[in-house]
Amino acid sequence: MASERRGYAACRTRLQGGCDPAGISVTAMRGDDTLSEWLDLIRAEYSEIPGLSLTKPQVRRLWNLDPPTCEAVLEALQADRFLRQTPTGAYVRAES
Fold first, then answer.
1. The domain containing residue 47 runs over which residues?
2. Cut 0.90: pTM above it
């Protein structure tokens, strides 16, 4: 639970535009943020929102990711077995 709250706090302090009430980022992170910071943020969001199911275009729009970054993030989260892709193309928690 503490790590989930930490994700929300990180979202609130590091995003230029803040978060919506559910804690989902509504604008992009600053350009100097690393891939590992994106991974931490997206893990936190999926952990805080049970049942979250997003397609690749939705992931790109939600976090304002460019295509290469989006691809790298999704590949890394799948390789870590944190996310899995459903037959319909959505990305969900692997434990779901």
1. 2-93
2. no
Token pair belonging to 4: 């989930």
Based on the structure, what is the number of domains in the chain? 1
Question: What is the average pLDDT score of the chain?
Answer: 78
Name the residue among 2, 67, 86, 75 with its Cα closest to residue 42: 75
Distances (CA, A) of 45 to 24, 41, 76, 83: 6, 6, 16, 12
d(CA 54, CA 75): 14
Tokens read off for 79: 């390789």
If you count them, how many residues does the chain have?
96
50: Cα within 13 Å, side-chain hemisphere:
2
The widest CA-to-CA distance across the chain, in whole angstroms, is: 35
Q: Which of 44, 14, 43 is nearest to 29 (CA)?
A: 14
